[in-house]
Queue: 2 jobs
Job 1
Amino acid sequence: MRHSRRLLHWLVLLAVLGSAAQASPLVICTEDSVNGCVAAIPTSAPPSFLASRGDSFFDPFGSGIDSSDKVQLSGLWLPDPAFAAAFGPGLWTEINPGLWILPASAHSEPFAKWYSPGIPWTAGTPDVVWILEADGTLSDVAYLRNDGPGGGATLTFGSVPEPGSAGLTLAGVAAVAISRRKRSR
């Protein structure tokens, strides 16, 4: 189960980053090592916010829970059933209506997807927004589309693994594929 969840995380990441390469991403904030960063999604009204942790206790919306990432959505937003693994125990959790947290204690940081049935993003909403680390490297990606039920808005959000982790995971996937291919012969 853990391996399938990790593989799903990487596949989603590749799909999101592949789509992001086609759109011009907008940097909405850069993390501060102490305060992290909190930024409104451009054109969201009333505002919805994305938040990403720095290197210390992170609780920008006063939930009392240290978190890696948080999403504050206004209006009716539901988790996408196709991303059910991201909303499993100890992962993305709704603690107040519209306030979703990824606890700092989570062993992985899966991409999660929410949708707002029948309510699209406002015209002019960027396709992709980025949150950068303090050193300027990519920390988190949000992909904003109108492909939900009834043409409603969707938000896909998650942390980008460090390049070393990505390389090791891809090498591991390649090794498993080669080993399975040899067994089938």
Note: Residues 4-14, 164-173 have pLDDT under 50 and may be disordered.
Job 2
Amino acid sequence: MCEPPCASLVSALATFLPLLAATAEPALPALLPHLAGLRAALLATLQEEEQEEGDDSGLGATVLEEEAAVEVPRWLAAGVRRVQLVLQGGPSYELTKARVEAAMAQFGALESCTLAHSSNRVGASGWVVYREEAAALAAVHRLVQVGECEVYTRPTCKDLTGHPVPHQVVMMLSRPVGLWDRDLQVRRVFARHGEVAAVEWRWSGGILRLLVSFKEKVVEGLVGSTVEVFKEKVVVREVTGFTMMD
């Protein structure tokens, strides 16, 4: 049983209660050291009882640590806190900092928010940084309503590992595409492979990448195939830290 902690608690009570009864109200602060000892004895007793009732193996602390651990997908590096925002619908001027912060705070506390509007919708429209990794993991790869706009969230390319993201593909194009309905056309091309969640154009390192995100896992056989996009035949590749490297 819990004899040592219980005995300590009984002894502390036996010492404290007579002192409390004999002390006048103005002198009560002088009992604080005795009260602190009583509190310590009580906590020790409770801790011993919890260990006996809920953890016969003596591994309670380890179990709690495992439950608190954040499960990171193998295609993401540990410590992710920054989440990119890619505008999918709505006028970009509606994407204000206040609206973004309000919408993205549903996943956790924010450390910062930065907007980077692009007139031709190439690249991310901004990003947020969360205080905790768990919040960032909960926020990535979602369609989020921000006022009249809809944004798709994804991790930064530098946070990707060598394992493929299961619901994204990327293609390298040799020339820019200036059509106003280019996103709609891309969605039509890939609709037969699954429901498209987001389309992103990313120009970096002299390469134009077309990134397509699906709501579900990429269908088997799509990666490695050749598709025609805007009269250009391109190879569909996995999205990894290598294929997205500048």
Note: The two ends are 63 Å apart (CA to CA).
